[in-house]
Hints:
The structure holds two protein chains of two kinds.
Chain A: H1 2-33, H2 50-78, E1 86-93, E2 96-100, E3 106-108, E4 110-114, E5 118-125, E6 130-134, E7 139-143, E8 149-154, E9 159-165, E10 178-183, H3 185-193, H4 201-211, E11 236-238, E12 244-246, H5 249-257, H6 280-292
Parallel strand pairs in A: 1-5, 4-10
Antiparallel strand pairs in A: 1-2, 2-3, 5-8, 6-7, 6-9, 9-10, 11-12
Chain B: H1 18-22, H2 27-55, H3 66-101, H4 110-132, H5 146-150, H6 155-182, H7 195-227, H8 240-274, H9 281-294, H10 310-338, H11 347-370, H12 372-378, H13 382-412, H14 418-444, H15 459-489
Helix pairs in contact in B: 2-3, 2-4, 2-15, 3-6, 3-7, 3-8, 3-13, 4-6, 6-7, 7-8, 7-9, 8-10, 8-11, 8-13, 9-10, 10-11, 11-13, 11-14, 13-14, 14-15
Amino acid sequence: MAPQVDALYFFLVALTAFFTLLISGLVVYFAVRYRRRSTDEAGAAIHGNLRLEIAWTVIPLVIVLFIFGWSAKLFFTMARPPADSLDVYVVGKQWMWKFQHPDGHAEVNELHVPVGTSVKLTMTSQDVIHDVYIPDFRVKADVLPGRYTHLWFKATKPGRYRLFCAEYCGTNHSGMVGWVVVQERAEYQQWLAGGAGTGTMAQTGEKLFKDLACATCHQADTTGRGPTLIGLYGKAVTLDDGRTVEADEAYLRESIVNPRAKMVSGFQPIMPTFQGLISEEGLLQLLEYIKSLKAAPSNATGVPAAAAATPEKK
Amino acid sequence: MDTAATPHSNYLTDGYGLKSWLLTRDHKRIGLLYLLSVSAFFVLGAVFAGLIRLELMTPAGDLVESDVYNKIFTMHGVIMVFFFLIPAIPAVLGNFLLPIMIGAKDLAFPRLNLLSWYIYTVGGVFTLWALVNGGVDTGWTFYTPYSSAFSNSNVALVVVGIFINGFSSILTGLNFIVTVHKMRAPGMTWFRMPLFVWAHYATALIFVLGTPVIAITLVMVAAERLLHLGIFDPKLGGDPVLFQHLFWFYSHPAVYIMILPAMGVMSELVAAFSRKRIFGYEFVAFSSLAIAVVGFLVWGHHMFVSSQSVYAAMAFSLLSYLVAIPSAIKVFNWAATLFKGSISFEAPMIYVFGFIGLFLIGGLTGLFLAALAVDVHVTDTYFVVAHFHYIMVGGTIMMYLGGIHYWWPKIFGKLYHQGMARVSAVVIFIGFNLTFFPQFIVGYLGMPRRYHAYPPEFQLWNILSSAGAVILAIGYAMPTFYLIYSLVKGKPAPANPWGAKGLEWETSSPPPTHNFEAAPVVTEPPYNYAK
């Protein structure tokens, strides 16, 4: 994305230089040409010119609308991660960055990614607002407490790239920095293979799911006191007030930390809040687990399933 | 003109005791009270700026601790924005000149005017108290939940100080609006008003409509901090981004509070030193109102990376481009005013040339920041820092100083040294560019703002910037000396030293207590230079 952003950037530099020189040039020319020659001299009786006024209203308007169109189109692409992106989960806290890969790898202040692959960061903060900024990739997005934000990039050259926190976050804000390490695919695979993983994020999430006794109510079939989570991710959910919401990351997170905010139609408000009981990393692991509970036949859960059927919980 | 040498011949000699100043209801004396307080805050803010530049000369954070550095840039921002830039031109020059320019004896509510100075002073003292008491480290933007739940500094005190100070803005705004509507001299129709008055009228609208929003927002921060009401902190059920919406709903219009009066000064100066009516007077007048109104609809452009929706970002981007148009119209009209003028190069005009150059760069780099895709890269970096300093320092302070130099003979009845004044204007222009232009480059290269320590590859640009700050400081110090010297040794100023048009030049220098010896009647259009 960097070359496209730079193209627009340097177009704007040229435009700025042109208008600065044009107007400064005119001002200097007028100042010299019409300098006062006698003390009682006065300027000409010119009050204005409607055609000129229209011209210098309409021409800048056309130029700025053109810039708007160009930048908005680019921005739209930048805001939409490709569907085949590699997921990485990010938790910011005063004053460090924690990265989790779905396969279970976790790193601090360093993020390994393969070259030529779209990478999508799902980010949250455990305290104040932070911001992931990778200048070389021309990307930046705030990292907020209590919700998920996203950022994606596709690195085109292996190397080490600086990562900054760009939203002031307190004492050691300028120390909240790190590196994005972009590796050739083979090298990246090697990196993935190294380091004893403790299981994928989804597996860790499943363990958490059991430890917190979530399965007591959220069963694989509809007999539980809570709604089943099989195949839930990305689906529409009907609430008790008749509204329909999409079960996205934001909804799932809210339903864990503040279960009564949106009650699923037909269920009692009996779930306790887990606010403060699960770390941000834990919430992301639960999320990965819930995402992995596909309704379609899946070897992960080892159960045959159809959307409306009631597969046995593994 | 009045040349009688009686002790009560002008407002400066009308009472000498401290009481005659502290209890004055004369808008001119209140303007001077503001001049003193505003200058004191400017010096304080500048000292903090100097410390920032000193620390950033080396990549390592080695001059002060991180916490101290964070407090330094916070206090620099708080003092400069709330206690210098916002009141500077309206409360000093506006107070002094607005009634005279429309032929009035005073503002509509003289006591309220004095009260607003006291409120400003009390708010300032509160803020200084917080500073002495350990400072505040949130940045002047007070972003939540850092300010409301995490910072261990004096957030509440500073917030109360700014809250109090806000009432001073509101009262001044109210006073200006009523004065312009009700106190114009016979014959002073709306379209005979100087553009300085139009600009202040537009500014006053923002004061009255915008300031209450920041006031209540800061109260909410204090409430969350002290009473743990859940408003912004997600742990208490609040929304951290809500704060940014409320904050920028005021603080973007506040940028126009700072620049509109500067544009008003600019119009007066260009006309006076070209001896020509402002080209397209009506367009310049209405563009001030357009800026004031549309300026309320663009706050979201500060939040393009804050997780607001893509569509909201697009709307704010489009509106931001629209608000650029009236500013462009003004610049074109000022340049066109010079055409076939009779241009002289006294000190205030040197500031005019400086303003045009700096405001062009400041304004045009705004196009970068309104461009969504580019903003993502440069927001929260030194690019933004450079951009708003070009507007606020390059625009507002250049015109504040230009205005001070233009009206100094009127205010104090003394002439200052023209040569020194021209040199200082040039030194400021050079120092300013050397300080802030490198920041555009280092921002584009990726240096985030509010960084105590930074990677070594950014050092060159920071050294250039710090070197420029030294020159800038010399440029700012010079007027202090020759202007004060002029009060002691300066030649007496005639009523109209520049041969300029406008009611303020028709009364004596300094003006009598009630501004005019005889109530003026206006019979001619503004800037009626051509014979």
